[in-house]
Amino acid sequence: LLVIIYQWTKPKEKMNQKKETEIMVEVKRSDGIHKLDINTYIIGAVGSDMSPTYEKEALKAQCVAARTFVCARNYQVDDSVNSQVYRDESQLKQQWGKHFNKYYQKLKEVVEETEDEILTYQGEVISALFYAQSCGKSANAKDYFGSDIPYLVSVDSASDKQEVDHVQEVCIDVATFMQKLPLDDVPYRVDVPIRYASGYVNTWQINAQVFSGREVREALGLRSSAFEVTFDGNTFTFITKGFGHGVGMSQRGANAMAKKGFDYQQILKHYYRGVDIIKKDV
Fold first, then answer.
1. What's the whole-number average pLDDT of the chain?
2. What pTM, to 2 d.p., does this model score?
3. Euclidean distance between CA atoms 195 and 266, whole angstroms
4. Residue 280 pLDDT
5. Residue 10 — pLDDT band, cuts 50, 70, 90?
6. In what side-by-side order are the strands of the sheet with 209-212?
7. 22-33 per-residue burial string, b: 16 or more CB within 10 A, e: under 16
8. Cα separation of 114 and 59, whole Å?
9. Which of 153, 187, 228, 229 falls 20 to 30 Å from 43 in CA-CA distance?
10. Closest by CA position to 67, among listed 52, 82, 86
11. How far apart are CA 3 and CA 71, in angstroms?
């Protein structure tokens, strides 16, 4: 990963005081490239991707992850799920309504309290992946993305299973299923999915074709690749657990840890193994 080091011309100050040198983030949006100072960007990114009602320590963990994420991409991102979602102040006002002032102030505080902090592994900025909710454990990076990443390994996140929307049922008729996956022939053999130890699907065989759990999830638009499936000859019924790819930090899990008294550094070091939390001098 490319790490660019900046030099402050003044000591660290509060975020409401202007620094002589600011990190600027280039955000590609539908109407062009927007250049934003890093703190404004992090508020918009965290406010878009995590509920401001979450515990402050969970929000702090998300701030550090979001800052690390954009740092690893040389401060050049878009505002979609291909990078990380970003909403500007006017969009957050529309999203939060009468709660805007309270929520925005809360996010300003957590950004200030974690200002300049990023995650590194053996001196390199990490890829700080995150998602909404695990199936009860996070997934190994290799199991979903195909590459071993030593700090992105499966860890316990059992509290996710207690969320009211942890499980979702989706029914897909065979014609739609064949169009989306796709299959070479009508289903005549549907095996039980083979799983990783984390609970996410490794492979699933239909007829003579073998699909990865990721392929199935993305082709069918499932919330998770941790799924069970039945087929009655006309309809595939999926029961999914969790929400997201499952690699890195579970946002619901982070909030549950915060409620139990863990601070943001403990949360981050639980989901990203062997990392250091450092101040990035810029």
1. 91
2. 0.89
3. 29
4. 82
5. very low
6. 194-195, 201-206, 209-212
7. bbebbbbeeeee
8. 10
9. 153
10. 86
11. 7
Mean pLDDT confidence for 142-156: 97
Closest CA to 49 of 275, 277, 269, 250: 250
Three-state secondary structure along the chain? CCCCCCCCCCCCCCCCCCCCCCCEEEEEECCEEEEEEHHHHHHHHHHHHCCCCCCHHHHHHHHHHHHHHHHHCCCEEECCCCCCCCCCHHHHHHHHHHHHHHHHHHHHHHHHHCCCEEEEECCEECCCCEECECCCECCCHHHHHCCCCCCCCCCECHHHHHCCCCEEEEEEEHHHHHHHCCCCCCCCCECCCEECCCCCEEEEEECCEEEEHHHHHHHHCCCCCCEEEEECCCEEEEEEECECCCCCEEHHHHHHHHHCCCCHHHHHHHHCCCCEEEECCC
pLDDT in tens, 39-93: 999 999 999 999 999 999 999 999 999 999 999 999 999 988 778 899 999 999 9
Contact 240, 258 (CB under 8 A): no
